[in-house]
Each structure stands twice: as C-alpha cells, then as structure tokens.
Amino acid sequence: MKANDMKFYLYRSKAKIDALYGQIQGSEKKGKLKWKLDLKLVSLERETEIHPEVGNEEKLRTVLQELEARELIGDLDDDKPYIRGIVPMRWGMYADDGLRPSDQGPFVYFGAIHDDILLGMGGSSHHVEGWYGVTATGSRSATPALVQFLLSAVDTGDRPDWFQREEIDEVFSAMALANHYLMKGPVQQLDFVAKVLCRERYCKLKPWEEEIGRGILATPLYVSQVDPMFVDD
Q1: What are the C-alpha distances in Å from 20 to residues 23, 197, 221?
Q2: Which residues contact 224 (CB under 8 A, 6 or more apart)?
Q3: Residue 154, pLDDT score
Q4: CB atoms within 10 A of CB 146
Q5: Tens-of-pLDDT digits for all 233 residues of the chain?
Q6: How many angstroms from the chain centroid is the CA of residue 215?
Q7: DSSP state at residue 1
Q8: How are beta strands 135-137 and 82-94 bridged, if at all?
Q9: Rounded distance, CA 152 to CA 170, Å?
C-alpha cells in the first residue's frame, strides 16, 4: 500500500478546499457539469457528476485531481504554485504577539529544514484535526513579517503583493526562528499539499546574517501523518 492511499489528517483547510471546490463546481448544484480547460499545450474535456451534498474528503480529492490535471502541483524543487511532499517536520501553535485579529483563531505552523530547503507552512488552527505532537513556537522580533504573510494567506489564499526585498528576508528569518523553537517537539513524517506564498532561491537570515540555499513559505490544503507501515521504500 502506498503512503497516499491512507491519510491520518492533522490539518485540512476547509476554507481553501471549499473555495477551490466552488470554482470547479461553478454555479451548478445538481446534474452534470461539463467543462473544458484550454491550457498552453493541452485541451482537456470531461464530465463530472455534481451532488448537492459532498463530504470533505471527496471535495479534497476533487480539488487535488483538478490541480493535478492543470499541472499546478509540483515537488519542492519545482516552480509550481502548489507543492506536494512527504517531509519529516515539527509543528505547533504560533505565538503571534497579539498581531492577529481577536476574532480569528491562532496560527498553526509546520516547519523543517529538508534537503537545504527552509520549509514553513502556516494556517488557521481552526482546521487542525489531530493534536498528537503539537507544541508551540514563535519568531521574537521577526514575528510581524511572518504574521502579515499568514494573515494574507487566511484572507486571500495568497501572499501580500507589497512586500519589499528586506521584508522578504525578515519573513525567512522569522521562519528560521520558528523552526528553531520547534526543536523541542517530536519529528513526524508529514504528507501535504500546500499553496506557495513565497519562494526564494537564497535566504539571508537575521540575526545570524547567514544564508541558506532555498526557502519556501506555504499555506497547506491538508497535512497528514504518514504511518511508518505505509511509507514506501
């Protein structure tokens, strides 16, 4: 059995999944929906049965199939708007220093340094489904820059469009600090698909004034724990 055949969800973003599913579904509520995607090199046409009530798992499956059909999902090394991977990570609640609006839940943050990539994924804790392994983290004085990106991800599903180069460096410094403070928690093998908010070929990390190879900040559609018995050799 392959790892992606069974999911032990820690996180599923109902808001993002519903928004993407609604775009696929269109205005039809019943019957059949037929659509055609004109891509640069591919023309794809198919019919899908649309039902008035669809479960979260079926919505997620439909969204992932559509993103794959449009060739929008890639590995960490690919320059795609969505990333997919199985990476050993730690995760926990992110201390936002009161910068988050009071009517929104705290952020959850997943972090790792993997194959010379500083990887961070953040979203609303409202969508957390599993709590085993959860810890806490923060970014000290670099917190505001990362919070702005995560707030934009929650509100629009995308990064802010007004950040300057220095502020991008601050975001990745915040990610490095968040990853550092996650070191107390257990490492879990996590499977995910996430929307990329920011991708850098190099990152200058304050306050250490050092560079790492690459950095990716994303907001997940889902994160699941991979049971060791289902990990491919």
Answers
A1: 5, 16, 10
A2: 7, 8, 9, 10, 11, 190, 191, 192
A3: 67
A4: 27
A5: 344 456 789 999 998 899 999 888 763 443 344 444 454 444 445 555 545 577 889 999 999 999 999 999 999 999 999 999 999 999 988 887 777 666 667 788 999 988 888 999 998 887 888 665 556 777 776 788 788 878 877 666 666 666 666 677 788 888 888 888 887 778 899 999 999 998 886 665 555 555 666 889 999 999 999 875 544 44
A6: 14
A7: -
A8: parallel
A9: 16
Encode 40-62: b = buried (16+ Cβ within 10 Å), e = exposed. eeeeeeeeeebeeeeeeeebbeb
Placement of tokens 């961070």 in the chain: 120
State how far the Cα of 138 lies from the Cα of 118, in Å rounded to an integer: 16
Please identify which residue in the block is written with the tokens 């790492």: 212
Q: What are phi and psi of 164, to 5 degrees?
A: -95, 170
Among 228, 219, 229, which residue's Cα sits nearest to residue 12? 219
Q: Are 233 and 148 in contact (CB under 8 A)?
A: no
Bridge partners, 121 (sequence order)? 110, 218
* Domain map (residue ranges) of the chain: 1-228
Backbone CA torsion sign across 159, 153, 7, 134? positive
Percent of the chain topping pLDDT 90: 28
Tokens representing 15 are: 């808001």
